[in-house]
Amino acid sequence: MAERDLIEQLVIALKILPSVGPRSATRMAYYLLNNEREKAKYLANTLLQTLEQVKNCKRCNNLSENDVCNICVNLKRDATRLCIVEMPIDVHMLEQTQSYNGKYFVLMGKLSPLDGIGPKDIYFDKMLERSLEPEVKEVILATSFTTEGETTAYYIADILRKKGIYVSRLARGVPAGSELEYVDINTIARALVDRRHID
Ligand SMILES: [Zn+2]
Known about the structure:
8 helices, five-stranded mixed beta sheet, 14% strand, alpha/beta, 45% helix, binds zinc ion
């Protein structure tokens, strides 16, 4: 009986993953236990180690093994450009395009008035402070093209423009309603290059 409970627990744990329903979770659990015990151990250890050692960069919130991430400390990167994204995975996606050499700031969310998520619930004040650092000459808004992402972009643009900051937004190549993580790399790269000034 005890074993059965643990297997059920594993299935419940696997269901934490996005797009994993009860059936896939069950299949995964039995697969790991029957065929791939060594690999399952590797998976468990890697997950634990990553959880222990990877944190959010103190400066930009990106995921990092150090207090400040490699992008923030890299002097070869263009400090005059600051790209604002919703989540650390967006930094990863933009880096994959190899068409951006500036810095980032991760909001850790987006404004969603309907769900009661306002500026206080994301790193809005820290973003503002970072954007107003003297070396920043352009802020690029790379929030998603969902309703909330657009709301967030326009809210930030409005405030930064009033403070005299040059603000741009990813071009419309990215399909409406999209999170960056589901958009292909070439489309993101083009949207970045074709970004438009918000005036
Ligand atoms: Zn950083």
